[in-house]
């Protein structure tokens, strides 16, 4: 009987927790859709941004927000219909935008897309590398080819795009007035590799490499070409393929209780970080990967309730005050 009761109580607790989490998620989404950008709408006026993976999810939201702050947008992705529909959404908001089919794993595609962006808009100032592949898989079931594919998209693809964009992004580069600063690169990373993440060995390794690329290019190209190179590491972001493809939405609604800020992030949160890094507000920021996760990667279970800890520390304190304070004796 007690077991049945405790099972029922556990079920009720879980249901209650799920309901509360869903309410929190809905509330935060509603709130976000009403939140206006705190940045001035013209802070990126005259800039041209190229975004890999800019046709969907986080990449699309970054395209949208860079566009809303004055930038012209070029989107690169493999699926033509995704790119086309993103471009027409941006155009319908009055944002100058164009799109190119392309695979970041192919150097010839990278060269063509960067050149086409330059031909279309006459310059390139911002490169955002958001293209990525992801799926959950236990390490023993992941073939070396599967591992390599994710490395190729996330890490090699990021480097290839940076490499081909250099001649346009650098100070005095093609289409640039030599008296103005060089451009900027933003690499979309993750927090998976800060510790270790179940069934994500490929993405963890790929994003660790992305962070290395960010730091090394920040050093070399910051020094030689006045290009700032930074990253953004999103935590779990709601309403994205990254979350739904991994089936994480259900799991996270339970885990949210232990997460600082008690919620998953929104695409808008990542896009605001990108606006900051791309604008002059971030002009002295170089080589950093900005974690935008509400503190999620730091989250740990709370083993002691706070009241118990306060109680315990009062007892320990009292006991130590009553202990006679003598000269410490050597144990030797
Ligand atoms: N969602 C999250 O919670 C989360 C958390 C941490 C980090 N991130 C990072 O945020 C970024 C966006 O993720 P998302 O969840 O918004 O997923 P998403 O919508 O699937 O975005 C990935 C985009 O990359 C494009 N892409 C994939 N492979 C490509 C290739 N080889 N060449 C060119 N484009 C390619 C995809 O378009 P095509 O398939 O048409 O090419 C798609 O538009 C990724 O870098 C991801 O690792 C996401």
Automatic annotation (TrEMBL):
The protein's UniProt keywords, in alphabetical order, are: NADP, Oxidoreductase
UniProt-annotated stretches for the region Disordered: 313-332
Source species: Populus tomentosa
**Xref: SUPFAM superfamilies:** NAD(P)-binding Rossmann-fold domains
The Gene Ontology CC terms held by the record are:
peroxisome
Q: Describe the reaction catalysed, as an equation.
A: a (2E,4Z)-dienoyl-CoA + NADPH + H(+) = a 4,5-saturated-(3E)-enoyl-CoA + NADP(+); a (2E,4E)-dienoyl-CoA + NADPH + H(+) = a 4,5-saturated-(3E)-enoyl-CoA + NADP(+)
Q: Which InterPro entries match?
A: DECR2-like (IPR045017), NAD(P)-bd_dom_sf (IPR036291), SDR_fam (IPR002347)
Q: Where are the transmembrane segments?
A: none
Q: Which positions carry the signal peptide feature in this UniProt record?
A: none
Q: Which Pfam family, any one, appears in the UniProt record?
A: adh_short_C2
Q: What are the Basic residues biased-composition ranges?
A: 319-332
Q: EC number(s) on record?
A: 1.3.1.124
Which GO BP terms, alphabetically?
A: fatty acid catabolic process
The protein here is known as: 2,4-dienoyl-CoA reductase [(3E)-enoyl-CoA-producing]
The molecular function GO annotations come to: 2,4-dienoyl-CoA reductase (NADPH) activity
């Amino acid at each position: 009987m007690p077991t049945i009761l405790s099972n029922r109580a556990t079920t009720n607790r879980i249901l209650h927790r799920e309901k509360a989490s869903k309410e929190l998620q809905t509330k935060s989404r509603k709130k976000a859709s009403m939140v206006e950008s705190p940045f001035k709408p013209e802070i990126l006026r005259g800039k041209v941004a190229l975004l890999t993976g800019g046709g969907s999810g986080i990449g699309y939201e970054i395209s949208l927000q860079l566009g809303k702050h004055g930038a012209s947008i070029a989107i690169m992705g493999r699926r033509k219909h995704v790119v086309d529909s993103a471009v027409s959404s941006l155009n319908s908001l009055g944002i100058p935008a164009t799109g190119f089919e392309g695979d970041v794993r192919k150097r010839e595609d990278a060269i063509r897309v960067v050149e086409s962006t330059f031909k279309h808009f006459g310059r390139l100032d911002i490169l955002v590398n958001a293209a990525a592949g992801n799926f959950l898989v236990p390490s023993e079931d992941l073939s070396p080819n599967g591992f390599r594919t994710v490395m190729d998209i996330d890490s090699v693809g990021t480097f290839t795009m940076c490499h081909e964009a250099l001649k346009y992004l650098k100070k005095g580069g093609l289409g640039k007035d030599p008296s103005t600063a060089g451009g900027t690169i933003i690499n979309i990373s993750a927090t998976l590799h800060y510790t270790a993440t179940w069934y994500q060995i490929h993405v963890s390794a790929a994003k660790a490499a992305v962070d290395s690329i960010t730091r090394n290019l920040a050093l070399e190209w910051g020094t030689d070409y006045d290009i700032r190179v930074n990253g953004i590491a999103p935590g779990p972001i709601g309403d994205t393929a990254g979350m739904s493809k991994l089936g994480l939405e259900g799991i996270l609604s339970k885990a949210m209780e232990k997460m600082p800020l008690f919620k998953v992030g929104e695409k808008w949160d990542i896009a605001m970080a990108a606006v900051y890094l791309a604008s002059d507000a971030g002009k002295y920021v170089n080589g950093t990967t900005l974690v935008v996760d509400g503190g999620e990667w730091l989250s740990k279970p709370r083993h002691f309730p706070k009241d118990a800890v306060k109680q315990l520390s009062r007892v320990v304190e009292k006991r130590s005050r009553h202990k006679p304070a003598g000269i410490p004796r050597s144990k030797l």
